[in-house]
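Q: Got a minute? One more chain.
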Amino acid sequence: MRRRIWNRIDKEFKLWFRAAPPGMFVLVVVILMRMAGGMQSLEFMFFDAMLYLRPPEQVDERVVIVGIDAKDIESVNQYPIPDGNIAELLKKLKSYQPRAIGLDLFKNVPVEPGGEELARVLRENTNIIGIEKILPPGEVAAHRSLSSEQVGFADLLNDEDSKFRRYLLYTPDPKNPQNPEKDKYSLALRLVTRYLRAEGIRLETGINDPDTIMIRGKELPQISSDFGGYVDVNDGGLSILINFRNNPQPFRVISLGDVLSGKIGAELLRDRIV
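A: Always. Here it is, folded:
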């Protein structure tokens, strides 16, 4: 009986001895390929597929987008839209009492008429956040009337397959990287900070990872050089994965003309990010 058991163990051992080396070789090759970035494209493909397979999500009522469509351009009969019309839009939006307004238009060059009026509106309303472009190639400055706290960068980072999966929240100033007081913050982070501040919520430094931020006790996992499918990635600041909404229209979208004509009710925009 004992001999039969030992014979069986010896047989299993020899079987594993023959089968293990090829398996270990394949495992080592896969690990080395992943460390070298050879699996990135495949991992990105699976990540995208998992995002598509998520259950449909509801429209996020905290955000409303005001778009400029072909009818708006036709009614104004000028493109780019003049600063005077943009100033009128901002004043109208301000009257609805949103928590924050993001002006996602580059305004480093005046578009007359109305340049001075737009400058005045931007100076008088501190919850309006404009944009700049800080990463090469082709930096674009923010509007001259905006304070540094009213500016967020609009740069996006694309992966090797030219798709956008990560979002840069903040980064050192490329022109002054050694001065932390000159750090640059994204448009989204500026808007979210103001939205949460109205509820008494402040962004905090991460506990497990002091290089990230924490909201309501939850740390935002930052993309590092060995994060998920990424290999040797360094964005120079705090980047997170974009949580794409699984909805054909994740936010409510209205037009510039609808706002200026008064077709939009105040309840749609009050306490929102616009």
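A: The mean pLDDT is 87.
Q: Perfect, thanks.
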